[in-house]
Each structure stands twice: as C-alpha cells, then as structure tokens.
Amino acid sequence: MSRTLARKLVRLAGLSLLLSLVLAYYLSTLPFGLVALAALTPFWLGLFGLLFRNLTRQVFSPLNHYLARLGKSDEPIPPYQEFEFLSQRIKRAEAFEAAARVEKDEAVARTEKHLLKRIQELQQVHQLLEVFGRSLELRLLAEMVLQQSSELVPLHRATLYILELDGRFRLEAVRGFNPQEAEALGRVMLTHDSPGFAELARSSDFLRVERQPLAEQPLLKGRFAPDEKLVAYQAVPLVTTGTLQGFFELLPQNNEPLSSEVQELLLSLARVMGVAVQNWRLYAQVRKEKQSSEAILEHMADGVFTLGRKLELTSFNQAGERITGWSRGQLLGRSFADVFGDLEGHRHLSDVLTGRQPATTFERQVSVRDGLKKIVAFSPSVLDPDVQHDDRTALIVVFRDITRLRELEMLRGDFTATLSHELRTPITCIKGYLHNMMHKKYRFEPETTRSHLGIINTQADRLNRLIQDLLEAARLDSQVLEVRTRNIDLAALVSRVVDNYRLKEPDRVLHWESPGELAASCDPDQIRYVLDHLLSNAVKYSSEGGLVEVSCERHGDLYTISVRDEGCGIPFDHQEKIFEKYHRVEIGNTRSHYGVGLGLFIARKIVEAHGGQITVRSAPNCGSTFLFTVPASEAKEEGRQPPAPSAA
Known about the structure:
Number of domains: 5
Number of helices: 17
Structural class: alpha+beta
CATH architecture of the largest domain: 2-Layer Sandwich
CATH class of the largest domain: Alpha Beta
Strand order of the largest sheet: 3-2-1-6-5-4
CATH superfamily of the largest domain: Histidine kinase-like ATPase, C-terminal domain
Number of strands: 18
C-alpha cells in the first residue's frame, strides 16, 4: 500500500476509536461483546470502503489510459468518469481493432501475392535448371533464357551471344526478330575487342545504356537500324568463375527501371546459362578427347583389347582383328583362353588381375584363326577401380605380333653364322692351296699347279661374289637401284648365260631353245645377274641328273623368263619370304649349299627397278619355277607401263 492509504487508515482508526468510546459510555448497561461490536462497526465499514476504492482505481486505470490513447486524448480521465466512458472506449477500441485487422489482411494479401509471384519465378528458374541438367543443346537453353526474361520484363527484342574460343561472339538465340533480320544480325561479327564490349567483359552485373539515340551507341551500332526506336537497353554478362562466357541483351518496351527482384532473377538466369555454356564446352572437350582416344586406339598398329573380371573380352580394335584374323563380333564375350588357345597366358592374366603377379610384358606362342601359330607380346594394365568408368572392364591389354621380329632375330643369328662360314670356307681353301704351293719341299707339276690355281681362282670368285652381294644389299637399303637401260637382244643374253652354265656344269641337263631375236629394253648386267642367280639355285637344289629348263615368252609389252627345276621344292609358308634379305630355306640337304640369303633379295630389287615382278610357283618335292618379266623395247619407246606378270 502507498503512504497516502496508510495515513487514511490511521485517521480512520482514530475516528472509529473515538466513536467507539462514545457508544460505550451510552451503552454501558449492555453486555461487553455487543458493546465492542457496536464500537468497532464504523472502523470496519470505513476500512472496507477504502480498500474497494483503491482496488477499482488499480484495475480500471490501465484500461482508462488505454482507451484515452485510443481516443487520441492526452488528458487523463478523472476517476469518477471511468465507468461512464468505459463502453464508449470499448466500442472505439473494437473499431480500431477492426480497422487494424482489415489493414493486416490487405498487407497479408499483398505479401501472399508477391510471394506467389516470386515462387512462380523461382519455379521457372528451377525448371530451367532441370532442363540444363538434362540437355546440353545450347540453342534450346538460350531460347528458354530469353523466354523466361520476356516473362519477367516486357521486351521489344532480345538476343543471346556465346563467346567462342577464338574470341568471337556467336549469335545463339533471338526474340522479336524475323528470320531475315536474325540472319542479318548473325552475320555481324562481334569480338571481345569490339567497341563497348571491353566494359561488358569486365562487368559481372547489369550494363545499362540510356544515352539516346541507342542505335548509335557502340554496343548497338551496326546491329540495329539507326531509325529503330529503342527506349532502353540492358546487357547481362554470362560470367562463371570470373570468365566471360557470353551475354544476353534486353531491349524493353519501356524505360522503367527494373526492380531489384527482377534484376536478381535475370542475374540468376545469366549465372545458370554461364554454367551451362561452361559445361557444354567441357562436354565438347571431353567428347573430342574421347573420340581422339578411340580413333588412336582403333587405328594404332598394336592390338588392344579389354577384359572383364572373368577375363572375357569386352572390346577389341582393328589391329587386334588383323593379328588374330577374327572380327570383333566373333570375339566379344569370349574368354582369353578361348580366343588365343593359351591356358598358361589365361592363368597369368588372372594372377595379374588379383595382384599375385606384376603387370609386366610377357610373350606367348598363341593360336589364332585357322590354327596359325604366332608369337605375341602381351602388356596388361590393371584399371584402378576407384577411377574406372566401366564396371565391365578390369584389364587393358596391348598386344603385338612379334613373330616376324623373332624370325629376324633368328635370321640375324643364322646370317652371322652363315657369313662367317661362307667367308671362312674360301679363305681356308685359298690359304691351304697357297701354303702348299709355297712350301719349299714340294715341287708340283705344271698340270697340278694349274689345277690348284684354278681352285684358288674359283674360291676367290666365290668370295668376291659374296662380298659384292653384301655391298649391293647394303646399297639397296640406303638408296634406289640405278638402272642403265638400253635396247638389247634378250634371247642372246639368255643363251650366253645358259652356255656358261653348260660349261661349268656338264653333268646337268640344261634345256633352252632360243626363239630368235627378242628386242628388250633393260640393263643387261643386272638382268644377267638375276638369270645367273636363278640358274645357280636351280642347279644347286636339283638332284643330280635333274632337268633345268629355261624359256622366254612374250605377253603384250613384256617378256616373261622362267627357270624351272625338278628339285626339292619350297614349302608354302616360305614362298613369300624367300625374296626377303637373309632368308634361307633349310630342308633336306639344302644347308650344304653356300649362300647367305641375299641373291633373291637383290634379284627382286633389280626386277622391280625395271618395272616388273618376280614370282615363284613351287610345292614340296615337285620342283620350283621362278618367273620374272623384262619390258620389251617397244613398250619403253611408247612410254607405256608394262603390266605385272602372273604367277599362275
């Protein structure tokens, strides 16, 4: 309670006590309790009245002040008027509350409308993002950006440009242009160095141009007609990670400034489109690299195939088809062991896949199509499961047919051994005979001396021929064979070579019938070498008393010379290799004959230098027939190219 209330209670208690004493004096004849009650009655009545008054003031004073404020009255309301104006104040409060409720409902309605619009705009942007995620068609995405922009801003015209890697802007989409105008606009070349575009490239926000006339401004000049009425211009750059990817420009129908919400949405569209352009470029780069890798794998000289977890083939390139003889359609899905017929190699690759063996190159002799045996080098590589994109692929294997390489290594070894033998044999013979002839204790008859000298001369010729073949082969590897052609009688040349062999090999049957004069245009020394070597082989590899037949026929502009023997023949798998350098066929007693495998190689080079061909027809134990062509002199004079001979 306040001090004022306490003072009032004290005064009230004193007054009540005084009245109680007066009443007690006059009512002294009554019992004491009644006297005390009668004496204290004024005190209790005064006390309750004072408390009730104070309570009403504390309860209604805040309401009174609130109603006074609602009534916009600064004057306090007297306490005795509180109950009179209470109903009026309540009515006024209710009216004020109703007005506030109406204002609140209107504000909520406006907010809901604005939020619904923002939600629709965001939904459009979300739909655009979904399209960006599903498609990389830049033209479709650019048209959608311009369509969304037109729904945000009433547009007169709009364009969207993409910055190419060469610094030029490519027109990707337009809005408000007819096809002819769009085509003319696309022919205008824009670069990042064009007037006005430097500022756009540096900007990451709106670029607004208001100076009139707009068509004469650097950004628009040359692309829009000077008399076209343009009221406003907005350019929005497509920037991602600080890099300009392009821009789209808006030409609104009015010059009203864009709201911050619209600007934010347009910038969101620009960011999304910039990311789409960047993704498109990355996708194009990845696709180009993938196509390049596939082209390299497809056309590389080595075979490449991939294996799954069960060592089944999942891909195969063209070189692999060429090495194995199988098409990829026949190979995919089959196991390594099934394709190459190599269980040991299959187990090795399985160990490489499981980590029990290192991924190193290994060589295996495998069987390919038709049972053909080849020596193949395999180089496996295990794919990292954390980075591989194809769950079916576990191993990449590069393989190469090294059969020919191993054969060449064997030929090189054989050539070294053969060459040392071929050089040592005549030298040993020459040295032995000379040593005997120079010995002081021996005196030889003239006939014996001539015989020894003849053997020395033969071995010297053999050694000279070997050295000449080696030098000629080395020269043919480094440069083109020089041919000195002239018109000769080919029949006479063949007759001289055959007669020479008849003298050297009187026990051999050499058959040659000259058809008369045969005018040919060739290098006689080189053709003599070819014929001499073919006759030498025919004599060496024929059985004793066997027939060697030489013939010459004309076919059009060519003479075909053939040398046939009845020797041991040539295996089919060697017939394509005998014209290669250092290749020798070792069957039967052929190893007993001297030579290093250069004669047929040089003969082929000579015939090809004359524009002809040399071929062979042979079968084991059925003899061999070598054929080569020489151009007739008429063909050379008329400048015609002679056709290749047939080995049939």
